[in-house]
Write a structure and sequence with these properties.
Blueprint: H1 3-22, H2 25-28, H3 32-47, E1 51-56, E2 63-71, E3 88-91, H4 96-104, E4 108-110, H5 123-130, E5 134-142, E6 145-154, H6 162-196, H7 206-223, E7 228-235, H8 238-245, H9 247-263, E8 269-276, E9 279-285, H10 290-305, E10 308-310, E11 313-315, E12 319-326, H11 333-349, E13 355-357, H12 360-382, E14 386-393, E15 400-411, E16 415-417, H13 419-428, H14 432-452, E17 459-463, H15 466-469, H16 474-484, E18 492-497, H17 505-517, E19 521-527, H18 534-539, E20 544-547, H19 559-575, E21 578-581, H20 587-595, E22 600-601, E23 610-611, H21 612-619
Parallel strand pairs: 12-13, 15-17, 17-18, 18-19, 19-20, 20-21, 21-22
Antiparallel strand pairs: 1-2, 1-6, 2-3, 4-5, 5-6, 7-9, 7-12, 8-9, 10-11, 14-15, 14-23, 15-16
Length: 622
């Protein structure tokens, strides 16, 4: 048999052994150290080498650190990391030729390690002492970056064959795949945490609360016994703190209250979540008699009312609470949530700083809200929401530069509903993403209808909610809807409020950048009322700022409104952004804004939001 044929058979045998190991379900489920132990043992056994080890580069890349060692001479001592966790290190400064070779050549096959220029620096106190004469190193990657080395050491000089090198590279690639998989798992765990926990308080979020309540309700139904009480806790007048001391102060108050609620020891306390900007929820199991819950609410109020030190000031905070029972007050998990929320709002209407039990009167209000939610779901399913349009005028105040699309709903019983009447229902029901898609579909359909009539429409602005910009799939959805209606994405501009970009900046930034890459423009809506930082604004691909109407109303007589509006116009100019003033109602507004360099105007001076047919007839018909 020829040497080439022998090499071929040996190679096949080696790779078969590796595949049998790495594709075994037992290996796949092993912890990383056990996987490294199995792989390095396989190396020493198949290649007849003395030692096999795995080394990793730290971020500084000034050394490599031994992560795992299998030594045939000492089979019971396989870990490179001693008890002090300091590891075994080889520094670049001591072995420059080796580091140069592993970086440039990737695979290092050394027949005589004690004399080869790439490895002879290891001879001092190591190669001779360990009786190492040949070395074979193969690179390990983390993605596209060199992250480590698998090192095989032989106690005799040997010429490394193609099967030897092939196995070493294959095992190094296996470790590389392990690195990739482990990085994906870490990323997934981090994403799961972001999705299910609040970053400010570390508490569970609304999604986690829904899952927990669903689980507990299922257990109660299955056992035929047990009860729940859900306490909906809303911090009173947090907006006053935000407005007076800034959002950082508000965050500190929320974090402090979250910690206090976490520390309260109560019989039956099962779950605690932060479910909104200033809202928490607590689940009590089985200990749900009114007398006990009254004591619970007193204890919570007492803890919350203790002074909070913020910005060298002592703040006194209170909370309004609503309580709903399962199964006494409701039959479904979602009804428990809505009932507790409705009871909390009732407590606020009664004067705040108190708690209210869900009752028949509150139930009537809640049922009305549930009914509206049900009708809204049906309207979204059927696509029966409508869109009105409000023109945005150019610098002459006479020509339409663009139009803003505003959702409207003609309820079968209540008539036309403005957004203020149903958006809160949509938000609490988790329907904002679906609602946004419904609006965009209607806008694209209107655009296509106008094109088929030979009418060229200007750019149409569509509002994006905070719930939408946190969904990575949003750009794909936008492009799909536009493709379906044969409308270019470049015909759209998307508006987001400052508060909408306060979430996960990595996700939001990527979503907005992809929308711009697809051809859309971006505008910051209601500028001046939120808490976005300039660092966020300048790093996101906005091309327009819309000044909130609250600053326009007092122009040109209110000095504060003038100063704020001028500063926003100046800021926009510095950032290379155009400016739209919202809420323009008078000639005085128009004159002052144009004199100060505002680019575009929007408001009742020109038009109220109008149905599509009316806006076409007024501005674009022959």
């Amino acid at each position: 048999m020829s040497p080439a044929m022998r090499d071929s058979e040996v190679l096949v045998t080696h790779h078969k052994a590796l595949m049998e190991l790495s594709h075994n379900i037992g290996f796949i489920e092993m912890a990383r150290p056990r996987k490294l132990a199995a792989l390095t043992e396989l190396c020493t056994r198949l290649l007849g080498v003395k030692r096999a080890s795995v080394w990793v580069f730290p971020p500084e890349r000034d050394r490599i650190t031994c992560e795992w060692l299998h030594d045939e001479a000492q089979p019971g001592s396989n870990s490179c990391v001693p008890q002090d966790d300091s590891g075994v290190n080889l520094f670049r400064s001591d072995h420059p030729e080796y580091f140069r070779a592993i970086t440039a050549e990737r695979v290092i096959a050394v027949d005589d390690a004690q004399n080869d220029p790439r490895t002879r620096s290891f001879d001092r106190g190591y190669l001779s002492v360990q009786n190492i004469h040949a070395m074979l190193d193969a690179p390990i990657f983390d993605g596209e970056h060199l992250s480590g080395v698998i090192c095989l050491e032989s106690h005799k000089c040997r010429e490394w064959s193609v099967p030897d090198i092939s196995l070493a590279v294959a095992i190094a690639d296996t470790v590389s795949l392990m690195n990739t998989h482990e990085a994906w798992l870490r990323s997934k765990r981090a994403l799961d945490y972001v999705k299910r926990y609040d970053s400010l308080t570390g508490l569970a979020n609304m999604d986690s609360l829904r899952d927990r309540i669903g689980h507990l309700v299922h257990k109660i139904r299955r056992r035929g016994s047990g009860s729940l009480a859900l306490l909906w806790i809303d911090v009173d007048r947090l907006k006053v703190i935000n407005d007076g001391l800034g959002p950082q102060a508000g965050d500190q108050v929320i974090a402090d209250i979250g910690q206090r609620l976490k520390e309260i020891q109560l019989a039956g306390k099962d779950f605690l979540a932060r479910i909104g900007g200033d809202e928490f929820a607590m689940v009590i199991r089985n200990y749900t008699l009114p007398g006990f819950l009254e004591e619970v609410t007193r204890e919570i109020q007492s803890r919350i009312r203790q002074p909070i030190r913020v910005s060298e000031q002592s703040l006194n905070v209170s909370a309004s609470m609503g309580i709903c029972h399962y199964p006494g007050d409701c039959q479904e998990p979602e009804e428990l949530l809505r009932g507790a929320e409705a009871a909390m709002y009732h407590a606020k209407r009664q004067g705040r700083n108190r708690s209210t039990l869900f009752d028949s009167e509150i139930q009537m209000t809640a049922r009305s809200r549930f009914a509206l939610e049900s009708d809204l779901r049906e309207a979204l399913q059927s696509g029966s929401l409508d869109v009105f349009y409000q023109p945005i005028m150019d610098s002459t105040g006479r020509a339409v530069e663009s139009m803003e699309a505003l959702v409207r709903w003609q309820h079968r019983e209540r008539g036309w509903l403005s957004p203020i009447e149903f958006l809160d229902v949509a938000r609490n029901a988790g329907l904002m993403y679906q609602l946004g898609a419904c609006v965009l579909k209607r806008v694209c359909a209107n655009w296509r209808e106008a094109r088929e009539r030979g009418i060229h429409l200007p750019t149409i602005s569509v509002n994006l909610s905070a719930e939408q910009v946190l969904v990575p799939e949003l750009p794909e959805l936008v492009q799909q809807i536009c493709r379906d209606q044969q409308m270019p994405v470049s015909a759209l501009q998307f508006e987001v409020t400052e508060d909408s970009i306060q979430g996960d900046f990595g996700v939001i930034g990527k979503v907005l950048e992809q929308l711009v890459a697809a051809g859309a423009e971006l505008a910051i809506d209601d500028f001046g009322t939120g808490y976005s930082s300039l660092s966020r604004l300048k790093s996101l691909p906005f091309s327009r700022i819309k000044i909130d109407r609250s600053f326009i109303k007092g122009l040109p007589d209110d000095e504060n409104d003038c100063a704020i509006t001028l500063s926003i116009i100046g800021l926009a100019g510095g950032l290379g952004l155009s400016v739209v003033a919202e809420g323009v109602e008078t000639e005085a507004h128009e004159t002052w804004l144009f004199e100060k360099g505002c680019d575009y105007l929007q408001g009742y001076r020109y038009s109220r939001p109008q149905p599509f047919s009316d806006i076409i007839q007024r501005y674009f018909a022959g």
